[in-house]
Known about the structure:
The protein is mainly α. It has helices spanning 2-7, 12-32, 36-63, 76-79, 81-95, 101-115, 120-140. The longest helix is centred in the middle third of the chain and has 28 residues, at 36-63.
Amino acid sequence: MAGVGAIFEYDLKKIIALSTLSQLGLIVGAVAIGATVFAFCHLLTHALFKALLFMCAGRIIHTIRGLQDIRAMGALVKQLPIRAVCFNISNLALCGVPFLAGFYSRDLILEWGIGENMNMLIIVVLFLATGLTCCYSFRVS
């Protein structure tokens, strides 16, 4: 539900907060299927990159005088090139782009779910949550 809410949201901080809720759902799902070590690994990598994302978002909001609507944000690469690069790298890592931290932790959770004899509905929900993460992350970028 948080992932779907993040897709239709326009406030930058709310999108980031809803994505955190979505990832916590994935972590709880991982604990439910018995992948507790992978869930903890995902929690740590998610916390690291989400902290970077919040710091970059705070700097972006401060630069554009408190405006949080993503529809009014554009061409920030020219004003804040380092922040924009850090924001996008953090976003890509949280999306699960290959060879970044989120890929390894999320991939392990999804593989564990497929490898175990779990209910197919749980596996579909985990994959759906992962797909929604990519949707709202690329929308923010």
